[in-house]
Design goal:
Number of strands: 20
Largest sheet: 10 strands, mixed
Number of helices: 28
Helix content: 40-55%
Oligomer: single chain
Distance between the termini: 55 Å
Shape: globular
Radius of gyration: 25 Å
């Protein structure tokens, strides 16, 4: 029996369980209440359950379930019959090294802040599923990203609870002698040391660098304190650690990757360490640049110039003077690698420019974003037309198994072997859907919406508890909990994401009276659930949150418009599974891709979006709705007025009537026709298995 306890512990320390329904249910079965309290963290769960209890439980049916899950887990890890083995055998030997400042793999491991991290997390999971030899590099953020609370005025308050390694599925990286593996880098005039942690993600490994060790000066111990925390000095320190430190870690581990993938410009300093290695071998700077370029690929996620990291010449000199002495690179040569105007070496150093200059290929994350990026960076390629700028695109997707709820997974297993089969091709999806009646599909929707509403009730209870603790409790907020008027019979709209201003969260409140007529229509009502965080330094985003909270407190909207605090992956999974409509109304073309709308399809939800990011590629007129046709105005107020009018008109004239039009069995046949179309056209294309295959075929294996 003790062997089985060890196996349970081993399972808890590989995040494969996070996308396997049976494995998740295994941990939940040990204590459903405790499972919720530890934020679905099996490592912490097992710390609270004695071996005596586990021994007793393993004598029962639970032991058989565990044995079955462990057999599948071991078969997964041992399998050589993978996509990569057949299509990219060289990448089963030499690894792909994937650098990202954040990874959103599971809500219990808080090393992510938003969409970039979620994309990185889904990328590494699919790389594991496909059998690539894949290594992720990031930082271990001791305080992670913040927990969000709202005060009495609806203003966001940030709280940073500490993450403790013993409560996480990570292990210390050691050297051949069993000692902590520690690397060192030069930042400014100091030598900074970093230890490393390893997180197992299926077959893949994610390494996390950590400067919180006694060997460091006090102010360097907190370099990894928070995701995107601090000022410009903290940002450049984090990016030096991620890029240069990441390469030093790979060398210390004896790893020689086939390719280095920079996911956004945060890690672009890795190219400097690769250059230093080539210069140390005796190569000229030009030859070294060619050698580095041949091994690097770069993905940009930012469609606006202001979103790219830039550092002043003085800051670059302060941070790199000592490093450059050892690297053999002059300061002006360094500036030339990252400066936009080669005739002005006193300008700002841009991380994206560094990545573009030292990568063999670069891409945006949707077709539209690729077009925007080529236009944005055309000035770096004199003599080339916009169309010839060497920035392509690979549209983002989602890791399908990670975003299926337990009930959704069980539902589709009645008709196919897995959610991955459902999303393998449009033809396969249509065959499966042909077996599913409208009554069964509508039953799925009701079950998922009931689960969401029950979750909202529990979540609001917890939210009110925290308001009492933090002294922000308001009597009117308790009324929506006591009455719990959310209903599974009502058309439910979801809006949840980072509260950046360009995402225009309050757009639906542009005309309060018009919205009121929809929300409180006696025969065709609507309810809306919001969630999301603003960056701690983004006061404009915080104002948006407060505006929505104030509107939700209006008498006509109480209990019908809900704002859930502390948005995270767990809240996201509940919302995307339960809402009928996923609302997305960014200012086009500022959404590079977005993936949240991709996640609702397998649950039978529909996307309602501005034609931005991935949606222009996916929308076919029958698998959701578009807010306008992509019209763009130079005047922002005019743009908001136009888009708000399109949003209202589509809701009033198309979405709401279609949802409430029922046949004699009270089934919305036309609505479900759109649901079927969405399932068959979105899942098979907008998933990270397709995305990672595209990266592998077009970039990882394509040595230019």
């Amino acid at each position: 029996m003790r062997q089985y306890i060890a196996e349970l512990q081993r399972l808890s320390r590989n995040l494969w369980w996070s996308w396997d329904t049976e494995a998740k249910e295994l941990f939940k079965e040990l204590s459903p209440l405790l499972w919720e309290r530890v934020n679905h963290n099996p490592v912490e769960l097992l710390r609270h359950i004695s071996n005596d209890e586990l021994m007793a439980r393993l004598d029962c049916e639970f032991g058989e379930k565990l044995s079955h899950v462990i057999d599948r887990f071991d078969a997964y890890l041992a399998s050589n019959d993978t996509w990569a083995a057949h299509n990219a055998p060289s990448l089963t030997k030499k690894p792909v090294a994937y650098f990202s400042a954040e990874f959103g793999i599971h809500e219990s491991v808080r090393i992510y802040s938003g969409g970039l991290g979620v994309l990185s997390g889904d990328h590494i999971k699919s790389a594991s599923d496909l059998g690539l030899n894949f290594i992720g590099i990031t930082l271990f953020y001791k305080e992670g990203y913040f927990r969000q609370h709202l005060n009495q005025d609806g203003w966001q308050i940030e709280n940073y609870p500490t993450q403790y390694p013993e409560s996480l599925p990570i292990e210390k990286v050691t050297d051949a002698e069993g000692k902590d593996l520690v690397i060192s880098i030069n930042i400014a005039q100091s030598e900074v040391f970093a230890q490393a942690w390893c997180l197992h993600v299926g077959r893949a490994k994610l390494y996390l660098l950590d400067t919180n060790i006694p060997a460091n000066e006090a102010h360097y111990r907190n370099v990894c304190g928070r995701v995107y925390g601090g000022d410009q000095n903290m940002r450049i320190n984090q990016e030096i650690l991620l890029g240069i430190g990441g390469i030093k870690l790979l060398k210390a581990l004896g790893l020689d990757p086939a390719v280095y993938h920079m996911n956004e410009g945060h890690s672009a300093f890795l190219t400097l360490e690769l250059l230093a290695d080539k210069l140390a071998e005796g190569q000229t700077l030009d030859d070294a640049k060619k050698a580095v370029t041949s091994k690097c690929v770069f993905t940009t996620h930012t469609p606006v110039p202001a979103g790219h990291d830039r550092f002043s010449r003085d800051m670059m000199h302060y941070s790199f003077s000592k490093y450059l002495e050892k690297a053999g690179i002059s300061f002006d040569d360094l500036m030339r690698l990252g400066i936009e105007d080669q005739n002005n070496l006193g300008g700002l150093f841009t991380m994206t420019v560094l990545a573009l200059n030292l990568s063999r290929s670069a891409n945006g994350v949707s077709k539209l974003h690729g077009e925007v990026s080529r236009e944005m960076w055309q000035h770096l390629y004199p003599g080339k037309s916009v169309e010839d700028v060497p920035i392509g695109h690979i549209t983002n997707g989602i890791h399908i198994p990670s975003w299926g709820s337990g009930f959704t997974d069980k539902f589709w297993r009645h008709y196919t072997d897995s959610l991955e089969t459902l999303s393998s091709s449009t033809e396969e999806a249509e065959k499966i859907l042909a077996k599913v009646s409208d009554k069964e599909l509508w039953c799925l929707r009701y079950r998922l919406k009931r689960n969401l509403i029950d979750f909202v009730y529990r979540y609001l209870s917890n939210q009110l508890y925290h308001q009492h603790v933090y002294g922000t409790y308001m009597e009117e907020d308790s009324s929506k909990l006591a009455k719990n008027p959310l209903s599974p019979d009502v058309l439910t709209i979801g809006f949840a994401r980072r509260f950046a201003t360009y995402k225009r969260a309050p757009l639906i409140f542009s005309d309060i009276e018009r919205l009121n007529r929809m929300i409180n229509n006696p025969t065709m009502p609507v309810q809306i659930i919001f969630s999301g965080k603003a960056h701690p330094h983004d006061d404009a985003g915080k104002h948006f949150i407060r505006e929505i909270v104030e509107c939700a407190r209006l008498p006509q909207f109480k209990g019908k418009i809900i704002f859930l605090e502390n948005y995270n992956l767990g809240v996201a999974k509940r919302m995307i599974s339960g809402v009928d409509i996923w609302l997305n109304n960014p200012l086009r073309p500022m959404e590079a891709s977005g993936t949240s709308g991709q996640k609702i399809a397998l649950h039978g939800g529909l996307n309602f979006s501005i034609p931005d990011g991935w949606w222009p590629e996916a929308y076919n007129g029958e698998n959701g709705w578009s807010i306008g046709q992509g019209e763009q105005f130079d005047d922002y107020e005019q743009q908001d007025r136009h888009d708000a009018e399109e949003l209202y008109a589509t809701l009033e004239n198309k979405i709401i009537p279609t949802f409430y039009e029922r046949n004699e069995d009270n089934i919305p046949v036309k609505w479900l026709k759109k649901v079927r179309n969405a399932i068959s056209t979105i899942g098979p294309v907008y998933n990270t298995h397709r995305m990672v295959r595209d990266y592998t075929t077009n970039y990882y294996l394509n040595e230019e």
